[in-house]
Every structure is written in C-alpha cells, then in structure tokens.
Amino acid sequence: MIRAILWVIGAVLLGGIVHLSTVLAMPRTAQQDAYSRLAPLTPVNVVVPLADPTANSAIMPFMDPAFAEAVCRYDLTAGSLKLMTPVSQAYTSVTFYTNKSVAYYAINDRAAGRRTIELDLMTPEQHAQVPEEEDVTAADRLIIESPSKMGLIVLRALAPEPGLMPMARRALAGAKCNVEAPQ
Asked: Which pLDDT tens digit goes with each residue over 112-122?
C-alpha cells in the first residue's frame, strides 16, 4: 500500500515539474509573439495604424474593438526616439514592450496631463550621454529607458461609441516616432 502511495506522489511531483517547466519555457519558445507578427507589416520607427479586429481575424490576440490601435516598431541603434502623440477626447494610452513582449512602461493621457504625450525613448547608455540642462526639469522632458534596443510601442485611443471611431483614428494618425541623431 505504501509503495503505491509513493508511486502516486512521485507521479504527481514529476507531472508538476513538467507542467511548471513547460509554462515557464513557453514565452521563450513561442514563434508568433507580437514583435514577430508585426515585423512584416510595419517599418521601423514609423507609426502604423492597425486594422480593426473582426471575429475571424485580428493581427494580435485580445484586441478590443472599442479601441483604435497603432504601433511603432522601434530600433534604438541609430539613436534615441522621440514619440509624440496627440490625445483623443475619450482616452489614450501608450505602452512600451521589448522585442520579447515584456511590457516595461505605460502612460495614459491623464498621467501625461497635456493634450499631447511627448517623451524620449533611449537605452541606458544613450541616457547617460544626455547633457544635464539646468533650465529643463524632469517634468518638462519625460525620458524612458528601454531595456532592449528593439521593441514595440502600442498606442490605443478609445472610441466610447462606434460612431466616434473616426475621431479615435484621427488622434492616432497624428502620432510620430522619429529617431533623433546622437548628440
């Protein structure tokens, strides 16, 4: 009897170890992550609007049809990136991801407190080379440090009603992400 109980406990432990290692390894082995899906559709350092999701097709999983979405696939090897996006009347958010789909920063229009979200994206090495300006405060210049040289910036604008979707798309159409030359 004890021998059977030990076999059951061993099988459960082995099953738990296999399950846990599979769950932890899955993100590293996934072939169709967000960066891979968007790479053939989007040029580097350009804001590109995404098509509206339908029941049968969506570029990314879990896209909300109440949001207009745009993406900027960035590469910081040539220099830091300047992102400027006007905010919509309802709600606008900007989320930053590494090329391995790890979210590392997000901001929305309420946190920005302005009619435009403006920020500089750079690597820690590029940030260390930025000269300190006495007349510019941290509130005047928002600098985000990217943990990787490549990644995604996802912009979302809410359309609270279906008739307001063109307004949300217009807000995102004014967004820009441009590489700034090294100083």
From this structure: 777 888 889 99
Q: Is the pLDDT of residue 131 over 90?
A: no
Stated as kind and residue range, the H or E segment containing 110 is helix 109-112
% helix / strand / coil in the chain, to the nearest 5? 30, 30, 40
Q: Which residue has the tokens 């090294």?
A: 182
The H-or-E segment that residue 112 falls in is helix 109-112
Residues 6+ apart with CB under 8 A from 103: 95, 96, 97
For the whole model, what pTM was predicted? 0.79
- CA dist., res. 75 & res. 91, Å (int): 27
Q: Residue 57: pLDDT above 70?
A: yes
Burial class of residue 179 in the structure, from the number of CB atoms within 10 Å of its CB (0-12 exposed, 13-18 middle, 19+ buried)? middle
